[in-house]
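Supplementary notes for students who missed Thursday's class. We covered one full example, reproduced here. Read the sequence, then the structure, then the short commentary at the end.
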Amino acid sequence: MKLFVFTFCLSLLAWHPFHVSVCDIYFDSRKNELQVAQRIFLDDFENALRKSSGRDIDLVKIYDSDRGQKLITDYLARNFRVKFKGEKTILKYVGAEIEEDVIWCYFTISPVRSMRQIEMKNTILFELFDDQSNLVHFNFNDKTKSFNLNKNEPDCKVDF
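Structure (token representation):
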């Protein structure tokens, strides 16, 4: 019986019944840019891209192609926004890598107008899951501020 319960619990983890992404944002003062690493479950991200593009997507095959980069960039531009003192910014896609069941998407935002006040909106995967949480960690001058964004609170303001 214990073996059955253990096996059942492991199978639930394989489906990752929780819906979360993690975003790490670092300020590089030498380059005057924000460096962003966004971690998303691969199957969920593929489903979001399928829904938004209306096409079948296999990111493992296309994530580093021009088509894959465009799909990723367009989706992130619609669902991840940063403003400095109310002024919109543009994401510069750097690349992506697949690590087991997740995809890491990397991009930069520059120039940084002001680190005093940053507004961010992260609606990644909200169209798929009502319980989606997007964790965001801002790292600036050895200080970290973290936020848990969800459908009810998709925005945050960071003051350093």
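Commentary. Helices lie at 2-14, 42-53, 59-62, 66-79. Residues 1-13 have pLDDT under 50 and may be disordered. If anything here is unclear, bring it to office hours.
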